[in-house]
Amino acid sequence: MESLKNRTLLKVIVLGDSGVGKTSLMNQYVYKKFNRQYKATIGADFVTKELHIEDKAVTLQIWDTAGQERFHSLGAAFYRGADCCVLVYDVNNLKSFETLNTWHMEFLKQANPVEPEKFPFVLIGNKTDVDGGNTRVVSDKRAVEWCGTKGNIPYYETSAKENINVDEAFLGVAHKALSNEHKQDYIYSRDLSASVTDILEEPSRPGCSC
Ligand code: GDP
Ligand code: MG
User: Fold this and answer.
1) Residue nearest to atom 26 of ligand 1 (CA)
2) What beta strand segments (E) does the chain contain?
């Protein structure tokens, strides 16, 4: 009971063009598998990973799209209550990098966070393994510059295929999600409402006419 109470649930959503490796990254991180059959085929919308950050028990609830990103038509439930948005592009695919602006804007429009300029984002440049880096078209410098224009978003480069930097990237995501100020407000107000309920449910004292 105590551990449940102290566990922080963080909702993370993963956005980016179709084919950049979103599902592969999640599968590598959660199942340590590349090419594993994705759970969406049995109807799940998210996968979870439990971890500890500075003595805090954290559950990362990572939401993936099941191909709807092609149509930019992700439902409101996908965005609702997100604590961190992970944007993914493929370092070998210029278009997937250029579309990041659209995904960034789309997230802010749909999720409508209280303070958009403070909302935690993380950028991942995936598929660094392809052809030993020879087909790469977006430099890390260019990616970091883009992150700078969006309020210094943390940037990670990964290979979901070779399992390079995937754990580090999601650990960064967890840290960023924990920093979501409005999450803290939410937890706090939930605690408050719990104590209000306790007070309301207190049995009336016998013999009291008030
Ligand atoms: P999503 O549409 O963004 O979810 O992308 P997927 O995870 O379905 O990956 C699209 C394709 O890219 C699949 O064929 C993956 O096997 C491949 N892929 C994903 N990540 C990597 C990577 O890091 N390196 C390489 N070489 N291929 C990858
Ligand atoms: Mg996918």
Assistant:
1) 130
2) 8-15, 46-53, 56-63, 84-90, 121-126, 155-157
Q: Which ligand ends up closest to the CA of 129?
A: 1
The pLDDT tens digits for 10-58 are: 999 999 999 999 999 999 999 988 875 544 434 447 889 999 988 889 9
- CB within 5 A of ion ligand 2: which residues? 22-23
Tell me: pLDDT of 208 over 80.
no
Query: Does the beta carbon of 136 lie inside 6 Å of ligand 1?
Result: no
Residue 5 confidence (pLDDT) = 59
Closest by CA to 74, choosing from 32, 102, 110, is: 110
Stated pTM of the model: 0.84
The pLDDT tens digits for 45-95 are 788 999 998 888 999 999 988 767 777 777 788 888 999 999 999 999 999
* Domain locations along the chain: 6-198
Question: 19 CA distance to ligand 1 centroid (A)?
Answer: 6
**Structure letter (DSSP) for residue 205:** P
Best residue among 20, 23, 24 to mutate for probing ligand 1's pocket (most ligand atoms within 8 Å of CB) is 24
- The topology (CATH level 3) of 6-198 is Rossmann fold (3.40.50)
User: What is the percent of the chain with per-residue pLDDT over 90, rounded to a whole number?
Assistant: 62
